[in-house]
Known about the structure:
This is Biotin transporter. It is found in: Cell membrane. The structure is a single chain. A two-stranded antiparallel ribbon has the order 1-2. The relative contact order is 0.15. The protein starts with a helix and ends with a helix. The chain has one domain: Orthogonal Bundle (Arp2/3 complex 21 kDa subunit ARPC3), CATH 1.10.1760.20. It is built from 6 helices and 2 strands; from the N terminus they run H-E-E-H-H-H-H-H. The protein is mainly alpha-helical and 191 residues long.
Amino acid sequence: xxxxxxxxxxxxxxxxxxxxxxxGAFLQITIPVQPMPMHFTLQYYFSILAGFLLGGKRGLLSxxxxxxxxxxxxxxxxxxxxxxxxxxxxxxxxxxxxxNSGAIGYLCERWLPKKGWQYLIIATVxxxxxxxxxxxxxxxxxxxxxxxxxxxxxxxxxxxxxxAVPDYLLCIFGALTxxxxxxxxxxxxxK
Length: 191
């Protein structure tokens, strides 16, 4: 495969993962919290796989493409799309997908995990970054942009306690999926 074909293949694979993350937005359970409802979706799972299977740069790129598509107004987010999404407190979790995917891909490229528990450790680092980004953004936007005062305790309950266990199950599932798929992808697709 020449360099041009390789670049086209990379872009197609990044676009595929952007599409998977978008599809994941529509497989959702709505959680009624204040100031705006949160949606538990499969986007997080696909952002984990993007990092593991595509690596740091391509995984991050696939999430950034997804975010850009949503911010220009195409309704690929759980509640639509458009630039107004930037002032939604839960947008930090969408940004968290980028941190999650980029960190997972970077660590996977550096560590080259071979065992399932190594994949789980890497996925857990991404999980921590995802929640850190989402919770900080939720607090800042709520308190300083839309002027809906919330304390850290409420942020912790609304943004972590309610969704942490199901998201960590997705984290485990993503690590196990990656454990099986990464060797195949490295050997056959992204050489």
